[in-house]
Amino acid sequence: QNGPGSERIETYVIDPPEPIHIWLYRCDNRFHTEHLRDLLKEKETYGILVIDATASALATLEGNRLQVVKEVTSGVAGKHRAGGQSARRFERLREAQLLSYFKRVGQHANKAFLSLPNLKGLIIGGPGFTKNEFEKGDFLNYQLKEKIIDTIDTAYVGEQGVQEIVDEAPDILQKVRYVEEKRIMQQFLYEIGHDTGLATYGEEEVERSLNIGAVKTLILSEDLDLARATVKCTNCNYQKQETMQSQALLAYEQSLTGQSCPECKTQTLNLTETKEIIDDLAELAEQAGAEVEVISGQTEEGQMLKKSFGGMAAVLRFKLSN
Description:
Elements: H1 34-40, E1 45-51, E2 55-62, E3 65-73, H2 84-113, E4 119-126, H3 130-136, H4 142-145, E5 148-153, H5 158-193, E6 199-201, H6 203-211, E7 215-221, E8 226-233, E9 239-245, H7 249-255, E10 269-276, H8 277-288, E11 291-295, H9 300-309, E12 312-316
Parallel strand pairs: 1-4, 4-5, 7-11
Antiparallel strand pairs: 1-2, 2-3, 6-12, 7-12, 8-9, 8-10
């Protein structure tokens, strides 16, 4: 620190918020922390409940991380095949046992899922009709019942049943995401169509709204292939930014060779930074406390966002003054 031999090595031990499953070795001139930063991103969580008359399992799916949090055995007797009074009495006892079992599963589900801050939805599965009886009853807290996004058939219960649901989850969650994307775009289109002043679009207007903290929801097309280039003059500190297609960056950098600075007239212009505009706007949104929604181009609304509104739009908290 104060000359040769005075350097100090410091070691910091950091516990990651969740286990790291990636091993990476690189000889490079920088630290590769991308995977660590991913751990800090807020992830949507889905609850999974697999149930039949013999057992049930509760699990959470957060990103790619699956965790079985509780397994419950029913204690319910099998169906009685004999006839007469004995069979009817046995069936009444079985129904009482099943009701008690459903209540226990509901209590465990309420405890496991209601405390999750990012719970996006609940998927219920299982063989037979037991899952349907459970879903129709009043065993889950109303907040969880409102989050049920699908009920599907599985061949198994327990961990195997949970895994079956996880295998089908991408298709289920994709449908849910499409519905959510349509809702987001419909809200934006409503504000535009009714001229409420609570929506804007285009790079300049969206960025202006972000900078003054007016954006409630930033809406970006996932097909937005634009980058922002920063050019500086090393002689006089002149600086400018330009937005262009990402594939045009290399040609743009080459075109700077021989160009004169508009301020000092020297040929000292350099491309100092390039950034995907989707990342740049998302960072501004994070600083402004705005929600960021990335819309796929596979829906009619997603196509409209890209073609009619330049792939960038926002729903505002308040009207902007001229």
